[in-house]
Amino acid sequence: MMRYMCLLWLTSTLAGGSYAVADQDSDLKQFQGKWEVTELVEDGKVVPKEAIQEWLPSGGKFEIVENAIIFVSPHDGKKQVKLFSLDVTQYPKGIDLSTRDKKDGSGIYRFDEGRLILCFSDPAESKRPTEFSAKEGSKHLLMVLRRSSERPTVAKVEPAGTTAKVLTDAQVANMLRGRWRYNDNVGSLFVTFNADNTFNTVREVTEIRLFQKFFVQTPVSTGKWSVVNGKLTFHILTSVKPELVNKLFDFNVRSISDGDFIFVDYLGRVGQASRVN
After folding, report:
1. How far apart are CA 82 and CA 67, in angstroms?
2. Residues 177 and 194: beta-carbon distance below 8 Å
3. CATH no., domain 31-147
4. Which of 173, 209, 236, 252 is 20 to 30 Å apart from 146, CA to CA?
């Protein structure tokens, strides 16, 4: 009988864990896509709808991909990323935000007729909210989000081979000299092409807390660069990732102008960088 009871307990425990995983996967799928904040209350203060755009990073609009929240500044196009995790085993369901290696806020969430309702405590507070409210003195932030109605924009890419037909390798190399910025899902990568054919890269990430944001710049790599037959090659000499040192990485030049540089990287992905004055 004891063995039967143990087996029954183990089976029910594993089944409960399976349901939790299924619920979490289901909720994570509902998070995916583009969202816009339509209502906002902070510590008892209702933020007018017309002021949300200036109050929140990215103007209150962002995209969720997997477990990453991607913010794009409407002013300079810079991207910032915040990660999140869900806990469907509690009520209300929990959500935790993080930036790099640190936790950056605890909250609760629920879906309601197409809306996503979030309530967060102040990052300095360890206690998670227990209700969807942001009364004065609570130090809570309450947000109501709806799916963004914006249509996705399609980047215009010039036909392959345009640069190779018009410019020589020497001309491409001359136009590359200077500092360029490439925005990705992590932040901005700045690449400086020096006249002596050396280069250096710096990663800039904007870390967002619930009530403030700040920039962090970190050197990434240095090395040599060259352009041969329309192909830009990086020879890594130093890097924050030791496994990349002494490796070569090729980028096919598709188009270059005074302000923009379009390329295909070593993984076959099309990218665009902008010159930094």
Report:
1. 9
2. yes
3. 2.40.128
4. 209
Residues 128-144 have pLDDT tens digits of: 999 999 999 999 999 99
Q: Which CATH number fits domain 162-276: 2.40.110.10, 3.40.50.1950, 3.40.1190.10, 2.40.128.280?
A: 2.40.128.280
Q: Which two tokens stand for residue 219?
A: 């050197």
Tell me how far apart the 2 most distant CA atoms of the chain are, in Å: 84
Q: What are phi and psi of 181, to 5 degrees?
A: -125, 130
Question: Position 140: which residue type?
Answer: H
Residue 230 · residue 253 · CB < 8 Å: yes
- Asked whether the whole model's pTM tops 0.85, one would answer no
Using the predicted structure, report yes or no on whether residue 274 has a pLDDT greater than 60: yes
DSSP string across 239-265: ESSGGGTT-EEEEEEEEE-SSEEEEE-
CA atoms within 13 A on the CB side of 164: 13
257 in Cβ contact with 275 (< 8 Å) = no
